[in-house]
Amino acid sequence: MVVGSENRLLAALPREGRRRFVASCDHVELKLHDILAEAGEQIHHVYFPTAGFISLIVTLDNGAQLEVGIIGNEGMLGSALTLDVSVSPQLAIVQGVGTALRMSAPAFRRQCQQNAKLRERLARYVYVSMRQLAQMSACTRYHQVEARLARRLLMSRDCAGANELHLTHEFLASTLGVRRVGITQAARALQARGLIRYSRGDITITDGAGLEIRSCECYGRGNHMYAQGLDSLRTRSNSCMRPSARGPPT
Amino acid sequence: MVVGSENRLLAALPREGRRRFVASCDHVELKLHDILAEAGEQIHHVYFPTAGFISLIVTLDNGAQLEVGIIGNEGMLGSALTLDVSVSPQLAIVQGVGTALRMSAPAFRRQCQQNAKLRERLARYVYVSMRQLAQMSACTRYHQVEARLARRLLMSRDCAGANELHLTHEFLASTLGVRRVGITQAARALQARGLIRYSRGDITITDGAGLEIRSCECYGRGNHMYAQGLDSLRTRSNSCMRPSARGPPT
DNA sequence: CTCGCAATGTTCGCTGGCGCACTGACGGCT
DNA sequence: AGCCGTCAGTGCGCCAGCGAACATTGCGAG
User: Fold this and answer.
1) What would the DSSP string read from start to end of B37-81?
2) Does at least one atom of strand D sit less than 7 Å from the CB of B176?
3) Which among B128, B124, B230, B231 is positioned nearest to A84, based on CA atoms?
4) Which residues 114-173 of B are in CB contact (within 8 Å) with A?
5) For residues A149-165, average pLDDT
6) Backbone angles phi, psi at A201, to 5 degrees
7) B240 interfacial to chain A (CB closer than 8 Å)
């Protein structure tokens, strides 16, 4: 398969189990702004993105929203089912066009029951997700807009697998929970340093390494969490805080 | 057993399984500032508080800390083990003196393997924890100090099972990730409304209902999540956002 | 009784981000 | 051509919370 057209959560499964799993899936397109799950509603399908990404969004009573996580080809939407809960914890919206493997909730339950290796992988994924949520909390609290923007752009890049992104200031503002003007300022600062270029919804990362430096530690930590999730968290006692590659683009 | 001396996560287990489970536990005291787990380190024991509570804390590179969750008698410390991961995701410190049932990690793994009902309960708990983390993220981002303080006091009350709390401004500041001065201001505002009284580390909630009104929605939502966790999340499609009682004190 | 310390009260200037409103630029559609 | 919608730039007043001091109070140890 072409690099990037694979879901890395499934890629780590043994060949045979993966074939059976994928055979029960549909290949679907992720269209911009598709709502794949709503907070508190039943989960009908699980999604394993192979390209593009999905935002997980918390909505408060006053209507304020905050992105609490994104799901790219390193993860899945609907992991609550692995916890035997069929209610979606958050709103899930496609924010980066792409494709995904989709499976119905009942079929997914059956696969989980039959496939121990799958269960194990997914349990790890849930664990990593929890760490990410906690890290995001602190990030949102303490880090400044410019650093968070840099982090978010890098994460988008990793999901998209390309340095060219289609993200408007307006959208980035809503995901980071700040004003659009705040993004404009931060983006200009990054552009002034030659790290990105942008125009009318197209953002190009021109210096990924530089952007990492301006981004907050949460980017590296996140990568490291996923990297850990891929190998043995069971036995090791890792120091757990060193950044590492989640897979820079082509 | 005396009300409040029970861990509610275990209380929901069938009588026989619970007896076997508790038989493998030690009864231990939770002493103030005991560190029960460190971020990235091995989990040696799991804890089921029966009184008091444990803070989960994320630490950033610059040393800034933020409490991302608390564990009282509705939960457990070490749930990562149910995900087959033995590395603690966060720092866990006793912030409210009390008692807990403690079990070694290997024994806990065995119990999980043998006891399907236990696994089911714990999976639910992990799910609820994830929702809480996400909610906290948004709360920390958008809600003001006074409302967050009110929420935190109510949560402490529920854990302690009493309206008299022992919490200094300094401590509350660190958990909410704000300055001590911010707590002083917020606490004075709450006291002026006659909702609490405090002096030198002793805080008394004098009007719990009033405090709920001043607190942010996250308090009610949290309670509702736990309440849901106790009954069937599997089949229902709940609207999921109505507050309800998590158990006001005696 | 007194010293020391923990806990709380208070002040002052600062700043990051907010809310709002308006402007300008580009591009697709009719 | 003209229009409209999307996207970005700018200015202005505002405020919650920050950071850093310093003052006060009450309690326990010696």
Assistant:
1) E-TTSBP-EEEEEEEEEEEEEEE-TTS-EEEEEEE-TT--B-GGG
2) no
3) B124
4) 120, 123-124, 126-127, 129-131, 133-138, 140-142
5) 90
6) 90, -5
7) yes
- Does at least one atom of strand C sit less than 7 Å from the CB of B169? yes
Higher pLDDT, B3 or A192: A192
What residues does each domain of chain A span?
8-115, 143-230
Q: Quick one: pLDDT at residue B47?
A: 97
- Check residue B227 and give its pLDDT: 86
Of B39, B64, B84, the CB nearest to A120: B84
Chain segment A19-28, per-residue pLDDT in tens: 999 999 999 9
Strand partners, A196: A205
Q: At what angle do helices A145-160 and A217-230 cross, to 10 degrees?
A: 30
pLDDT (0 to 100) of residue A239: 38
Domain at A143-230: CATH code: 1.10.10.10
Please name the amino acid found at residue B243.
P
B contact residues 54-113, partner A, Cβ 8 Å cutoff? 56, 58, 60-62, 64-66, 68-69, 80, 82-87, 89-90
Q: What is the pLDDT of residue B45?
A: 97
Query: What stretches in chain B show pLDDT beneath 50?
Result: 1-4, 234-250
Chain B residues near residue A177 by CB distance under 8 angstroms: 138, 141-142
Mean pLDDT throughout A126-143?
A: 94
The CA distance from B95 to B99, in Å, is 12
Report if CB B180 to strand C is under 7 Å. Answer: yes
Q: Each residue of B209-219: pLDDT tens digit?
A: 999 999 999 99
Instruction: Tell if B170 CB is < 7 Å from nucleic strand C.
Output: yes
B8-127 CATH fold: Jelly Rolls (2.60.120)
Domain A8-115 superfamily per CATH: Jelly Rolls (2.60.120.10)
Count Cβ neighbours within 10 Å for each residue of A57-83 and write b for 16 or more, e otherwise.
bbebeeeebbbbbbbbbbbbbbbbbbb
